[in-house]
Amino acid sequence: MSIQEILHEEWRIAILTSLKALPGSVGYEGLLQKLVASYHHYYLTRDEMQSELRWLRDAGLVRLHDNVTPSRITYTATLSDKGLAVAEGRLRAAGVRLPGE
């Protein structure tokens, strides 16, 4: 496994566990960037965060809502039941590190 693949797995579980900690398991990308940086010490760019959120959506681990403004699109993510199971370590998902591993 490459260093880049390991980083992506780490980032994804950090995003999922951050969402799990939020009320209603819902968070916008800017807040998720701050939480991932503050609690997991990963400093993702806006593009990296959006890319990971889309990956998690495609894997069925989050649902995304597009917030369209004249200058850009931002995302609000909601943890799915499958994403919650992964965040809690009850389910393994390819491309996502197990929490606490």
Topology, pairings included?
Elements lengths: L2 H19 L4 E3 H12 L5 H13 L3 E7 L4 E7 L1 H7 L14
Antiparallel strand pairs: 1-3, 2-3
Protein architecture, described:
InterPro entries: WH-like_DNA-bd_sf (IPR036388). With 101 residues, the protein is of the alpha+beta class. It has one domain: Arc Repressor Mutant, subunit A, CATH 1.10.10.10. Helices cover 50% and strands 17% of the residues. The chain contains four helices and three strands. The chain has a three-stranded antiparallel beta sheet. Helix 1 crosses helix 2, helix 1 packs across helix 4 (81-87) and helix 2 (29-40) packs across helix 3 (46-58). The longest helix is centred in the N-terminal third of the chain and has 19 residues, at 3-21. The model has no long low-confidence stretch (mean pLDDT 94).
Number of domains: 1
Here the CATH topology equals Arc Repressor Mutant, subunit A
Number of strands: 3
Q: What's the arrangement of strands in the largest beta sheet?
A: 1-3-2
Task: Please work out how many helical segments DSSP would assign.
Answer: 4
CATH H-tier superfamily: Winged helix-like DNA-binding domain superfamily/Winged helix DNA-binding domain
Helix content class: 40-55%
CATH architecture descriptor text: Orthogonal Bundle
* Percent of residues in beta strands: 15-25%
Q: Report the CATH C-level class.
A: Mainly Alpha
- Measure the end-to-end span: 16 Å
Please state the average pLDDT score: 94
Which radius of gyration do the C-alpha atoms yield?
13 Å
**Pattern of helices and strands:** HEHHEEH
Structural class: alpha+beta
Largest sheet: 3 strands, antiparallel
Gross morphology = globular
The unreliable regions are: none
InterPro entries: WH-like_DNA-bd_sf
